[in-house]
Amino acid sequence: MARIREFEIEDAVKDALNLFWSKGYHATSVTDLAESTSLLRGSLYKAFESKHHILVEALKLYSADACLAIDRTISSSESPLEGIKKIIQYIAKASTGEAGKKGCFMANTTLEMASQDPVILEIVEKHYKRMADVFNRTLKLAQEKKEISKNTNISALADLILCWIQGSRIIGKTSNGSKRVKNSMIILLSNLK
Predict the structure, then answer these.
(1) What is the CATH classification number for the domain harbouring 76?
(2) Residue 64 sits in which domain range?
(3) Confidence at residue 1, expressed as pLDDT on a 0 to 100 scale
(4) What confidence tens digit (pLDDT) does each residue in 20-29 have?
(5) Is the pLDDT of residue 34 over 80?
(6) Global pTM value
(7) Rounded CA gap, 185 and 183, in Å?
């Protein structure tokens, strides 16, 4: 059997991520993964040990990419509060229309797997904690710059933003989701002060 190169593994994880995202874990077969990644079944098992291991690697990749995107959005914004607002607006857009029907890979996997799989639950919890920590730090900076009232409970606001994001990614999959996401975004943005 030919040796699998590192870049092939990275590409395979990206391909698997997209497949799991569109079909879900349980509906994705090893044959689907082999076809999607262009790896033979034997090579797939040699590189990843199991379908579950591929999912774990896909979730880790997704989490790293999502958190990096959040960090970049915040750091490239004119102010901390502006960065938070840009993220909220981006999520609202990503949660509507065809993109909204796809949902969020982390939210989809949370719903499908986290209550039954402690490994997945740990990855999901780390991801949401990392997001909440970024929001907490950013909101504290906004508070220091007097963009947000000193009386605002920053931790609760960070949790509200995180819950709104994940809720929007789920509700966006429904027929009335776009309207609900947009309406709730308006209220959330108007209360960031």
Answers:
(1) 1.10.357.10
(2) 58-190
(3) 43
(4) 999 999 999 9
(5) yes
(6) 0.90
(7) 5
86 close to 73: Cβ distance less than 8 angstroms: yes
Q: Is 77 left (phi over 0), alpha (psi -120 to 50) or beta?
A: beta
In-domain check, residue 74 = yes
Residue with tokens 């605002």: 152
CA angle 124, 126, 116 (to 5 degrees): 35
Yes or no: say if 64 and 38 are a contact pair by the CB < 8 Å rule.
no
Say how many domains are in the chain.
1
Q: Which two tokens stand for residue 12?
A: 């395979």
Whether 185 maps to a domain, the answer reads: yes
Report pLDDT for 4. Answer: 54
Residue 7 has pLDDT above 60, yes or no: no
Residue 179, domain member (yes or no): yes
Residue 102 lies in a domain: yes
Tokens standing for residue 186: 């308006």
CA distance 155 to 157: 5
Averaged pLDDT, 166-180: 92
Residue with tokens 């901390």: 80
| Six token digits for residue 138 | 């950013």
